[in-house]
Amino acid sequence: MPELPEVETVRRGLAPAMEGRRIVGVEARRPDLRFPFPERFAERLTGRTIAALGRRAKYLLADLDDGETLVMHLGMSGSFRVETATDAAAPGAFHHPRSKAATHDHVAFRLEGGATVTYNDPRRFGFMALIPRAGLEAHPLFRHVGLEPLGNALDGARLKALFGAKKTSLKAALLDQRLIAGLGNIYVCEALHRAGLSPLRAAGSLTEAEAERLAGDIRVVLEEAIASGGSTLRDFSHADGALGYFQHSFRVYDREDEPCPTPGCGGVVERVVQTGRSTFFCARCQR
Fold first, then answer.
1. Is the separation of the CB atoms in 219 and 149 below 8 Å?
2. Which of 6, 48, 101, 267 is most deeply packed, by most CB within 10 A?
């Protein structure tokens, strides 16, 4: 699954082509993706103007001028391609290039001005939904989605309050989408290493100073990843077709048995499995 920075890079790549544009035609080339398309999907979108293109957790949100929101999730292999009369680009940053096979082009949005935005998804684990904007946060997709980790909403006090006296591991708590939205395995490993905190310790054991440090490092790691185009792991790719380079600056993720990059540490990156996911950390400098 894409992590928050991957989805945000896709959003930023699509926004110039979609925001403020009227949808002049929609072609859904199959009745479903992971779930069936909404009733009268193409009809409800045709003629609508995209007022804004946002993001909530790992969902792309296209706010329409009639009060509905087109919700889009990339699933495991979904990507968008923007085509004009003179150019074509695929927003996002992913390790393995996204599919360009036309057989996996499932939805095409024709926009005022001549651009076409096509959704391609070989595995069809992505989906699209139409939800009234006023009821978005109460919708089952979003009702239990946690705090956004970017911006000022997440600080040490809020993080400590979210964790409370939880005895679950710090890593598991950070991956709990009901607490913090959009964090995934890669960036949790990276943020914990920067903060010098062991992924194995109890989430509720953080001091106020440690929680404040961790909140700041979460934001820094995500912002750096967004600025450099996402992690580029697996299949996800930028809207403009460019590959990011943040994967080359990973401190611990996928660096088992390599020297810890913390100056003066002298430790080695270890790998353990937590709740079915690989965790990379340095036992010497992550306490």
1. yes
2. 6
pLDDT at residue 245, as a whole number: 41
pLDDT in tens, 154-211: 999 999 999 999 999 999 999 999 999 999 999 999 999 999 999 999 999 999 999 9
Q: Please identify which of the residues 2, 5, 149, 199 carries the catalytic annotation.
A: 2
**CA atoms of 40 and 66, how far apart (whole Å):** 15
Angle, CA 282 vertex, CA 6 and CA 257 arms, to 5° = 85
Q: At what angle do helices 208-227 and 156-163 cross, to 10 degrees?
A: 110
| 104 is known to lie in a ligand binding site | yes
pLDDT at 232: 45
- CA separation for the pair 171, 180 (Å, rounded): 12
* Cβ atoms of 58 and 73 closer than 8 Å: yes
CA distance 63 to 162: 30
* C-alpha distance from residue 286 to each of 107, 192, 215, 260 (Å): 46, 8, 16, 10
238 labeled binding residue = no
